[in-house]
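Reopening: C-alpha cells for the 6-O-phosphono-beta-D-fructofuranose complex, inputs below.
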Amino acid sequence: MRLGVLTGGGDCPGLNPAIRGVVMRALDYHDEVIGFREGWAGIIKGDAIPLTLEDVEEIIGKGGTILGSSRTNPYKKDKETGKDRVAEVIATFKKFELDALIGIGGDDTLGVASKLYSQEGLPCVGVPKTMDNDLYCTDFTFGFDTSVTLAVDAVERLRDTAKSHRRAMVLEVMGRHAGWVALYTAIAGGADWVLLPEQNDRIEKELEDMLAHLQEIRKRGKRYAIVVVSEGVELPKKTETEEELDEFGHMLLKERGIADAVANYIKDNTGWDTRTAVIGHMQRGGPPTLFDRMLGTRVGAKAVDLVHEKKFGQMAALVGNEIVGVDLKEAVGKQKLVTEDWIKFAKIFFK
Ligand code: F6P
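Re-run output (same inputs, fresh job):
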C-alpha cells in the first residue's frame, strides 16, 4: 500500500514518535509511506517527501514534528485565489496514488479527515494528538503529559521565589477551551488555586472564592500563594473580531494577558505584591516524556493496522490501557472539557 501521513494543528511532543510508529509498522506490511509537509497545506500543494526507516529511526526523543505543521483548513476556500482546496486534496490523493491517509492531529485536523472520509469518500484514519487533552473518545492524547510536566516544574520554581518575597504568583498555561493542563498543573504542582475556561460563566464568583481562600491561607501563616490560570479564562469578556480568529474559528490569544489581569485583581483587592509568568509555547517544545513516547508510538502503529483492516473513518484511541479504533466522527463531534467532579476534586487540595 501507499500511505500518506501528515501532522496538523499546534505541534506537541509525541508527534515524532507517532510518525515513527506509522513508518515502522508500515514496514511490516511492506507499505510505502509519503509524508506531507505542514499539515493539510502539504496535501493541498502536493508537497511531500518519502519517509524511510532512516528518516525516523532516531526521532523518538525529539520534540516538534519532522513534517512540520499548520492550521490550514481545506474546507475554507483559499483567501487569495478563491480556489476550492478540497478539490486540490482529492487531486493530490490521485496524483500520489494514495491507498490511505493517516492524519495526526487534534479536533480540527481530525475533523477534516473525518469529513474527507464521510463526504468525499477518501480513505482516512486518525491519530489523536493535543497537549490540551480535550479530544473526545480517547482517555489521553500525547503532548499533554510533557506539557504538564514542564508546567509543574514551572510551579515549583515559582514557589521558591514566591516564598522568598511573600508574593502571590500567577502562572498562565495553555488551554483555550479546556482547562486540563491548568487543572493537572495545579493539582500536581500543589498550587493554591486554579482558574479554568470551564468556569467562565461564573468567573466573578470563582475570583471571589479565590480571594477569600488566599486571604485565609495568609491568615494561617502561609507567606506566598501560587495561582494557575488557563489562557482561555475570560476576565473581563472580550469581543471576538474577525481578525482574531484562525481558519478553524478559534480565537488567537497571543495578546490577552489573562495572568496580568488575575494578578492585578489579587493586588487591587489585597495590596500584596504579585508577579506573573506565562510559559506559553515552551510547553509545546522539548523531548517527549516516557508516557508521550509510548502513546505516540502505540497510536501511530495502530493507525497502520486500522488501514490494513480497512477501518477507514476511525481513530486510534487510548481506552483504559488498550489502543483501539473508535469512530472519528464521534471523536471530533464534541470537546472533552473539565467536569465539575474534577473541579471539586482539585479544590480538596486548596487548603
Ligand atoms: O491547540 C493547542 C494549543 O496549544 C492551545 O492550547 C493554544 O491556545 C494554541 O495551541 C496556541 O496556538 P498557536 O501555536 O497557533 O499560537
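Residues 40 and 345 are 39 Å apart (CA to CA). The chain has twelve helices and eleven strands. Marking as resolved unless the reporter disagrees.
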